[in-house]
Structures are given as C-alpha cells and as structure tokens.
Amino acid sequence: MKRRHLSLLVALALTALATSCQQKTIAAKPDPLSRAYDVESDWNDPQKQIPLNYQQAQGKRVFYTYCVWCHADSSPAGPSNRSNLTPTPPLANDGATFNPLSDEFVRNTITLGGSAMGKSAMMPPWGRTLKPDEVQAVIVFMRAIAQPSYQPPARPGPQYSVK
Ligand code: HEC
After folding, report:
1. Distance of CA 50 to the CA centre of its chain
2. Residue 85 confidence (pLDDT)
3. Taking a C-beta distance cutoff of 8 angstroms, is the pair 106, 130 a contact?
C-alpha cells in the first residue's frame, strides 16, 4: 500500500474514533422524556418545577390523556377546547375553585359527571373510563399544581359532602 493511502486510512480511522467518542457524549445525556412525568412546570411560572411523587405522576398521565383538552389553555395537540365551552371549565391548577372542594366531591364530579352534581353536563362522567385509583391520582395531581397551593384538611370530610 502506498504511504499516502496509509496516512489517509489513519486519518479516516482517527475521524471515526473521534465521531464515536462524540456520539458517546450525546448518548450520555438523559432522555428528556424519561423524566417527563416526574415534574410539572408551574403553570403560572414556567421557571418553577413542581416535583411529583408516583401517584401524582400517574395523575399527570391521566390528566394529559383525558382532561387537558378542556381544563388547560393549551394541549399537546395545540390550542385547547376550553375557550369554546360554556361554562368555561376551571383551569386544573385553579386553587381558588378546587381548594375549597373536598376530595369526595371532586371524586364524585369526575366519576359521575357534572350533571349528577348539579354542574354543567359539559363535564363528562369518567366512571366507566377511569379506574378509581386513576381518578384519585388525577385529583392528587391537580392538588399538587394548585395555585394558590392546596392544604389538605386536618380531618377527612364527610363521604357525601355537598362541596
Ligand atoms: C369536554 C370538556 C371536559 C373534559 C374533557 C373534562 N372536563 Fe372537567 N369540566 C368541564 C366543564 C365544562 C366543567 C364546569 C362545570 C360547571 O362549572 O358547571 C368542568 C368541571 C370539572 C370539575 C368540577 C369543578 C367544580 O367547580 O366543581 C372537576 C373536578 C373536573 N371538571 C375534573 C375533570 C377531570 C379530572 C377531567 C379528566 C378526567 C375532566 N374534568 C375532563 C369540562 C370538561
């Protein structure tokens, strides 16, 4: 083999080596999606990250599958349907609306739908779609992102609470 060819070969090998090293550095970066359910950005302050425990993370998954279309201003598919609805559904982080409501009342609204609770029938019933633990998970997710923040009651409320 000619000397020139050999040096060309060495140069090629070195480039390949350098590229493979570079690829390793890229591969070492954490996959942004692998942690997508561990945190939620504060809806009022995107700089702030709210850490989510396992149940809250399950709730985030439920929320972004079923509820985001009406209870947020933007959805993974683009603009949300929220502004088209009357009454306008409360934003999921609307603490002023949700904090005074007991878990029981919220659970019944989600499971049975708005009309069963004297609210608008535009809020669908989810009892045949979601399992009870998924309903509970989406409630704790909404509690976690609430603004102003949610303080759980000191003692459990009555099971058939009017609020
Ligand atoms: C098709 C649109 C739509 C979807 C999807 C939807 N909602 Fe609603 N939701 C509404 C509307 C409209 C209201 C307001 C009802 C009212 O105030 O009369 C509402 C109200 C509520 C309330 C009661 C608020 C209150 O003041 O009592 C809760 C809780 C709630 N939604 C949770 C959820 C959850 C959790 C999901 C997903 C599993 C969901 N919603 C999906 C439209 C929707």
Report:
1. 11
2. 95
3. no
Give the CA count within 13 Å in the CB-facing half-sphere of 112: 12
- The predicted model scores a pTM of 0.82
Residue 147 DSSP label: B
Decide if pLDDT at 120 tops 90.
yes
State the Cα–Cα distance between residues 119 and 163, nearest whole angstrom.
Answer: 12
Among 56, 63, 71, residue to substitute to test ligand 1 (most atoms within 8 Å of Cβ): 71
Q: Whose CA is nearest to atom 13 of ligand 1?
A: 89
Q: Where are the chain's structural domains?
A: 1-30, 33-145
Q: Please name which of 95, 68, 62 lies closest in space to residue 82, comparing C-alpha atoms.
A: 68
Over residues 135-145, the pLDDT tens digits come to 999 999 999 99
At residue 102, what is the residue type?
S
Residue 163 pLDDT > 60, yes or no? yes
CB atoms within 10 A of CB 123: 22
| One CATH from 3.40.50.300, 3.40.50.2300, 1.10.760.10, 3.30.870.10 for 33-145 | 1.10.760.10
Amino acid 69: pLDDT? 96
Answer whether 120 contacts ligand 1 (Cβ < 6 A): yes
Average pLDDT over all residues of the chain: 88
